[in-house]
Amino acid sequence: MRDPINSEMERADAVENVELRSGRPPQLRLDRGERSDVPSVEAGRLLAPPAGPAIVIIDERTFTRDCIAQSLRIAHGEATVVSYETVDEFLNDPSDFRALDLVLYNIGGRRATDPEVDRDIGCLMEAYPAVPIALLSEIEEADRIAEAIERGTRGYIPTSVNLAVAVEAMRLIRAGGTFVPARSLVHSVSKPGRIPAGRRVKAPSDPRLTPRQMAVLHCLRQGKANKEIAKELNLRESTVKVHLAHIMRRLNARNRTQVALLANGLLERNDPA
């Protein structure tokens, strides 16, 4: 008499072989005999609403899209990861995304100001105003970062960073923070000519920041959210906002990204050698 367990395993292997011969990608399965509470995903659509948080990846290239999705499923195991080729495909999907807490959009070598990218960002923000959007880009230049942040995105992740940094950047963004690559900002401060004249800002020679404001500036330089800064410095979040407003006025900066750009030069001058 055949062992029923072995028979079931042989049947599953036969199904996989048929899928491969037919040209269809084999369906991902857990170890046989295990049950999963993770929502099923088919053809980019959720078959059931996710019980927990969800992450959406938008990337027109199948290989990078699948690699990123698999990496995030491992690194963010508590989240359901769904991927799409285009923004329109995602927005036309009737799936229930009430628990969505991050959209990662790979823009490749394009700018955030490119008409198609600009339109896509606007559509995403209109459809999901409370969900942070992060851009994955092949370009690591401060002016491009500033363009992206000015359009309301909460992160700019260059493909030059390693996977561990990208994963932690997305974790920060999901927690309410903003991520920009510090390496790019430092490089741009050392070579200001790379930033278009219309976007250059100058730090006053005597900013007259208090020690507490300098501490807030240190945290902001690391991409920390107001809540994280408040916890680290034992302040109220409202107090952090007041300090940031004063810092922006003193540095003649219009937003947090410009403050971060200036902070790299300012803190180097104030830090002891």
Radius of gyration: 23 Å
The CATH superfamily of the largest domain appears as: Response regulator
- Helix percent band: 40-55%
Oligomeric state of shown chains: single chain
The number of distinct β-strands equals 7
Residue stretches low in confidence (pLDDT < 50, at least 5 long) are 14-40, 188-206, 266-273
Number of domains: 2
Strand % is 5-15%
The largest sheet, given as strand count, sense and whether it forms a barrel, is:
5 strands, parallel
The N- and C-terminal alpha carbons lie at a distance of: 80 Å
User: Strand sequence of the main sheet, in spatial order?
Assistant: 4-3-5-6-7
CATH architecture of the largest domain: 3-Layer(aba) Sandwich
CATH topology of the largest domain: Rossmann fold
> Mean pLDDT, as a whole number?
74
Number of helices: 11
The structural class is alpha/beta
Order of helices and strands: HEEEHEHEHEHEHHHHHH
Q: Shape from CA axes? A: globular
- Classified by CATH, the class of the largest domain is Alpha Beta
